[in-house]
UniProtKB/TrEMBL annotation, chain A:
GO molecular function: ATP binding
PROSITE patterns: ABC_TRANSPORTER_1 (PS00211), ABC_TRANSPORTER_2 (PS50893)
SUPFAM superfamilies reported for this sequence: P-loop containing nucleoside triphosphate hydrolases (SSF52540)
Keyword set includes ATP-binding: yes
Domain of life: Bacteria
UniProt-listed InterPro entries: AAA+_ATPase, ABC_branched_ATPase_LivF/BraG, ABC_transporter-like_ATP-bd, ABC_transporter-like_CS, BCAA_Transport_ATP-bd_LivF, P-loop_NTPase
Domain annotation ABC transporter: ranges: 4-236
Originating organism: Loigolactobacillus jiayinensis
Sequence similarity: Belongs to the ABC transporter superfamily.
Record keywords: Amino-acid transport, ATP-binding, Nucleotide-binding, Transport
Key word Nucleotide-binding present: yes
Name of the featured protein: ABC transporter ATP-binding protein
UniProtKB/TrEMBL annotation, chain B:
Protein name: Branched-chain amino acid ABC transporter permease
A Pfam entry, by short name: BPD_transp_2
Cell inner membrane recorded as keyword: yes
Keywords recorded for this protein, A-Z: Amino-acid transport, Cell inner membrane, Cell membrane, Membrane, Transmembrane, Transmembrane helix, Transport
Organism per entry: Loigolactobacillus jiayinensis
Amino acid sequence: MALLKVTDLSVNYGVIQAVKKVNFEVNTGEIVTLIGANGAGKTTILKTISGLLRPSGGTITYEDQEIQKYKSQKIVAAGISQVPEGRHIFPGLTVVENLQMGAFLRKDRDGIKTDFDMVFDRFPVLKERRNQDAATLSGGEQQMLAMGRALMAKPKLILLDEPSMGLAPIFINEIFDIIRVIQQQGTTVLLIEQNAAKALAIADRGYVLQTGNILMSGTGKELLANNDVQKAYLGG
Amino acid sequence: MQTVLQQLVNGLSLGSIYALLALGYTMVYGIIKLINFAHGDIYMLGAFWGYYVIHQWHFSFWPALLSAMVFCALAGVIIEYLAYRPLRNSPRIAALITAIGVSFLLENGMSYLFSSNVRSFPQVMDVKSYNLFGIKVSNIQVLILVVSIVLMILLQLIIRRTKMGKAMRAVSVDPDAAQLIGINIDRTISFTFALGSALAGAAGVMIGLYYNSIDPLMGMTPGIKAFVAAVLGGIGLIPGAALGGFVIGILETATQALGFSAFKDAVVYVVLIIILLVRPAGILGKNIKEKV
């Protein structure tokens, strides 16, 4: 069953149409990836799902509710959390405070405590640096913190925007491993990546986006093997 | 030595008023990057509210102070909602000009409604002077200092410990990320205006009591001085605003004590010019480097 269904979604920036009647869906338990070059509209789609941007047309259906008019806090409350591109952790707040902020809308103290342990378990480096100012973390650590913060909201669907961008190769592998763990523990993942090879390798399904349109879709394996995809995005 | 200490006491009580006002400037700037030039007029509204409830309803000091804080908090929220919120996504200069317009509206509106005459503030408290080691301290000075410090501590607790306070900090460093974790930006901004305006309201009632006179234009000069105090401490920084307020207050009384009363306002502006030339980020400000 589709957890998230995007139908004929269009988004404009002024007169420029960044996303043109895009259709895709994410089923419960999947990792779905949107790949495409810079400017293809990937981030715009995620921001629209999260309620930061308003679509000019089309619908976004999540758990059978149309959410394209919801405010962002209502969308977070419904179970969709985004890890934004460039991480956007809160500098000046400690690692622990950043994680607490992730649970901003939750009231179940015990559940929050459990999730703290879960996040520290998954990202031991955050536990080590728990009382440090988040701005002092390395890029990879900040990415983990941003993911940890999103997980603190206990989302059903997590939206990841370029989690590997600007990271050292050793961190990139770690981040992709973690995405898999997140999925195995029951959170559905919508992943946006320029690192198409890595993204398709862990994704159940993928969509190729070009200048605001979906060009093709298929399972991760199919797309990895596709000649056009290889030429355009995998350097093959 | 005694004169120095005496002026220090005077400076501290005046400075705590500036500090309360500067906190409002700095919090609003921190969260929406707006210099709210109408802030000094909120302080005037607080003084008038205090005047009214003491005069008409025979409130004693504490109810007058608390009700002025509530009244000003509401006024601040309403002003933000009507004047600044529609301009949230406009260029910053538009909101700045609007703030100046709101300031004029409040000053002239109050002059129109209640006349521009100077009124004497009802004395709800007997003024007592104490002599401590040759330094004259009035009970009102002590009251101002203590109330201000208590309010600043409360503010710090609200910002550090409460959920709304944390939301304020999150919105001020990264509004987009704050939205993505479910923070309601509009509500957080309203809350910030409420807090800042409540402090201004308290300052207004206390200054009425201290100087014993109020008028619709009373907010102009203290408002600008408090703005200088906020810049001096480092705009956007809460400890900076408190520090800047005390520094400006002490500087002003020191200038008067040295016999340059005519220059007491000029000194403050000279400080502004110097700080902008030498250390634009303010005393406590630093150029923050972030990893990207």
